[in-house]
Each structure stands twice: as structure tokens, then as C-alpha cells.
Amino acid sequence: MSQPVSIVIVEDHHATMDGLTLGLSAQPDFQVVGTAVTSDSGLALAREKQPDVIVLDLHLPGTLSPRATIEAFRELAQDKTRLIIFSAEARMAFIQSVLAMGVAAYLLKSERVATVADTIRQVMAGQSSIISAEVTKTYKKITRAEMEVLSMLGKGMKYHEIAEQRITSVATARKQCETLLLKLGLETREQLIAWAVQNGFGSVDIEA
User: Fold this and answer.
1) CA–CA separation, 58 and 35 (whole Å)
2) What's the angle, vertex CA 64, arms to CA 124 and CA 195, rounded to 5?
3) How far apart are the C-alpha atoms of 179 and 197, rounded to whole Å?
4) CA distances (Å), 101 to each of 14, 56, 111, 189, in order?
5) What is the pLDDT of residue 199?
6) How far, in Å, are 51, 75, 87, 147 from residue 202 at the CA level?
7) Which of 90, 128, 174, 202 is 20 to 30 A away from residue 189, measured at CA?
């Protein structure tokens, strides 16, 4: 019989912590080997336990910012430990920035424990860049190029500025914005800019 997947949970909301701990511990193939409520104590625990998976909230008490927290846990984990972010932050631009740092999955706190368990099994099987379905159902239709355009719109750039930076024509930049309007169910360029800003495009700050 194979060893159960060892899990450390780092989360400062006690109700969420209790729910995750109880739910994951009930799985026969999992073992929650420790919990922590600050980034500093979480790092110490992870260093001691060397778990297979760390389920990590990003906005924690402690001395580290979210970016520094991810960097510290990634450095500690290296290739052995998979890092799953469990956060209320749903802006796709923020999530993309986090995934780019090498975490295995990004789940919203609205997810059921069963979904967290399934995700743990997926990352243990070698999958990566897993995102909550609640997020992907909105963003899965948006291409990487369109995300670049959204970032530029979020910074207040005009069609000609977008075209110049992306080395394309103004007509192409305009067409991409029109396509985004259709995909997102919006009607005007102003609404598209507002949507881009609200969703963190153009001003992502993972330190916050």
C-alpha cells in the first residue's frame, strides 16, 4: 500500500482551516501533517515536515508579502513539494502572475473541499497550472494576445499606442477590442476598459 499524500495547510481563517483539515483528513489517501496560521510558522512547519503538498493562503499574518511568501515556499519546496494557492483573490491578471511563479494550482476559497482534494490528486499526478473552474469559465476564451491588449487598455493606452507597442496595425488593435467586447458580453470600449481595470489588468500588484 502506497504512503498517503502528506499535506500542510497554511491558512489564518480558522473556520476555513478547520473545514479543510477535517475534509482532507477524511480522505484515505491523504494525511494532514500540520497546520499554520502565519507565513513564518508555515515555512517553519513546511521545512520540518517536507510535505508532498502545501495548501497556502496568500494574505497571511507574518513578515512576508504575498510575492515573498510564494518565493519562500517555492524555494523551500523545490521539486518535491507541490504548492496549491487557496485564495479569495479572483482577478485573472493576479492569478496569472501567481501561476507564473511556479505554483501547481490556484483555487478560490469558494471551492468545495472535494474540489481541493481532486486538485491535490491532479497535481500529484503531474498536472500543473490548474485554476478554479469559476475563474476559467470566464477567461478560457481569452487568448494570451487578448490578455496583453487588456493589460494595455487597463493602463489607459489608445488604439494607436496598443498597435505601436504590439507592432501591429491600428485596425488589428481595434478588431481585437471588438472581439473582446463580444467574448465578455460588453458593448462599449469604455466598458471594456472598466472591466480590464476591475479585473486587475494593467495594474497587477502581487505585493498587496
Assistant:
1) 15
2) 75
3) 18
4) 27, 14, 22, 32
5) 78
6) 36, 28, 21, 10
7) 90
Backbone angles phi, psi at 106, to 5 degrees: -135, 110
Q: What is the pLDDT of residue 115?
A: 95
Stretch 94-123: mean pLDDT: 92
Percent of the chain with pLDDT over 70: 93
- Across the chain, mean pLDDT equals 88
DSSP, res 141: T
Find out whether 4 and 31 touch, Cβ atoms under 8 Å: yes
Indicate the fold that domain 5-137 takes in CATH.
Answer: Rossmann fold (3.40.50)
Task: Look at domain 141-198 and name its CATH class.
Answer: mainly alpha
Query: From start to end of the chain, where are the E strands?
Result: 5-10, 30-36, 53-56, 82-87, 105-108, 130-131
pLDDT above 90 coverage of the chain, percent = 54
CB atoms within 10 A of CB 91: 15
- Rg of the chain, C-alpha, whole Å: 19
Cell of 58: 496568500
User: What pTM value is reported for the model?
Assistant: 0.73
- Rounded-to-10 torsion of CA 88, 94, 100, 106: 20
